[in-house]
Each structure stands twice: as structure tokens, then as C-alpha cells.
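Intended use. Records such as the Response regulator transcription factor entry shown here are meant for training and evaluating sequence-to-structure methods. They are not intended to support clinical decisions.
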Amino acid sequence: MIRVLLVDDQPLIRSGFRALLDLEDDIEVVAEAGDGEQGLVLVEQHLPDVVLVDIQMPHVDGIEATRRIAADPALSGVHVVILTNYGMDEYVLDALRAGAAGFLVKDILPEDLLHSVRVAARGDALLAPSITRKLINRYVTQPRPALAGAGLEHLTSREREAVALVAQGHSNEQIAHHMVISSLTAKTHINRAMTKLHARDRAQLVVLAYESGLVVPGTS
């Protein structure tokens, strides 16, 4: 059973999402919160698999709530998905840096919401190639200096190659085809890279790949 916590200051949004999620046999909404501060308390109480968090809320916003969850080792199994009214607003990149597994637009189709919750619960990132391209475009228009000491020196050449392909928006199957390996081996390379780089998920790998200089915008 996938345990979900809803954190949004709009009761109508919460009730709509809950009504949809509660119809599924494999998903249970364990609690709701109207702001990030209350949400953090409920995360510790319920230890949900997935937290759907509004990005803009009073008291503690979605980014700060995500940052606190990601920083707590006791909550390592909690996957945060940011809810936003816009496909790529100014806060999304900050949310991914904070440790979010991805983000969803609030007018998402019901079937896509259900799929996204299941993907997040598995520990996979909600970063479709189209979203990854938007992230890349953000780096192209607002370049940032490469981060030193990002830990890339601990990766094998194959792990670095796999991370670069993740950052370009490729799936495990596409990475396996490109590297001429099995999908399982591709996943192993990615998981080992996440462990070595202390990345919670693929979303953080994408951000790290660009911030470290492993992938340069416009060259992939």
C-alpha cells in the first residue's frame, strides 16, 4: 500500500486529490495538512511514502518543507513531489535542489496523477524528458558556476556516462541501449552513482550533473 500525505493550503485541491487517490486499491491518503509546518509534523507521525506538497504556502513553504524532509535521515524513505500551478515556475529548480523527487502541475490529468504517485513511491524521479529539457533551458539562460568537490571523482567512467545520460532526459532503457548494456546494469550504475553522490533520486542527479559541470548546457 502506497501511503500519501497531502500538504496544500487550498482545501478544494486537497479534497479533489484525496477523492481520486482513495479510489485506488493500492493507495491510501494517511493525512492532510494546510501548511508546511503542520505537514512536517504529520510526516514524522505517519512516515508516508509520498508527500504531495504545494510549493507556495504560509508559514513553511514547499521548498523549505522539502529541504527539512530531505535533511532528516529518519525520513529517507519519504519522497516529496512538489505541486505547482505552473509548468515551470521560478521555484521549481530550487525545489529540486532541496530534494524533491519532481513536480506536478495541479491541473494534471487524473490518470497521470495516479501514475506519478506510483512512480514516486518506487523512488524514481518525476522528470520526463520534456521537463528535463526545461531544466536544461533554465541553465542555458541562467548559467551557474560549476560546483567544486561534487564527488564526481568517486564515480567510475561508466557511472559518469550513465549520470550524464540521466541528465539528458534518457530512461533506463535508452541508457542501456546507448551504453550497450542491460537495463538492470544501467539501473545499477545509476543507483551506485546516487549512493556515491549522496543524491536522493534521479532528480538530484540531473541538478548535480549540470551544477558540477559534468554536463554543459547546449552540448548534449
